[in-house]
Amino acid sequence: MDKDKLKGMIKEFLSKKYIANILVLLAIAIMALIVSSDFLTKDTKTKNSFNEPLGDVLVQGTNIQMTEEEIVEYRLKNILQSIGGVGAVEVMITFEMGTEIIPASNTTKSTDTTEEKDASGGTRVIASDNVTETIVVANEANTHRPLVLKEIKPKVNGVIVVAEGAEDVVIKAKLYDAVKTVLQVPGHKVQVYSK
């Protein structure tokens, strides 16, 4: 290969046209990395890790994710097992639905009224209402989340407790009262059985 041809190829490669193309490709690659990192770092609010504190209880173990409903069952099971005379306990709670989240929103209302008159003296009024709602989004640490006004916890449909020691009427009554108190549910939604 000739030196002049090699110099010509290098000059052509380093020309403004090729450098501009390389810069465009580099910018696209950087944007793709930023967008993909947003999708990879999403986490849900209804999950909790076994290593995170749960109120006054710290659960230790592997990094297993629990829903809020499972956390309620876990904490209820622990408190029931700590009652005197109670052995191993199993708890099942059924909920009406999942957690309902009410996001903040910007509402824009507009009313347009048009009055038309025809040649014979008749009048026609046209009114239109337009309501636009957009959810308010908060930008926190490179994530976009809706701004939450209120979180409504699910209602308890029923509770079943199966416990060692529940054959004793006094222990059964203690378990029954504890469940009603902790979950704020009426007695007809709670059943306690012996193991």
From TrEMBL:
Regions that span the bilayer? 20-40
- Which keywords has UniProt assigned to this entry? Membrane, Transmembrane, Transmembrane helix
- UniProt cross-references to NCBIfam families, sorted A to Z: spore_III_AG (TIGR02830)
- In its UniProt entry, what is this protein called? Stage III sporulation protein AG
Protein source organism = Natronincola peptidivorans
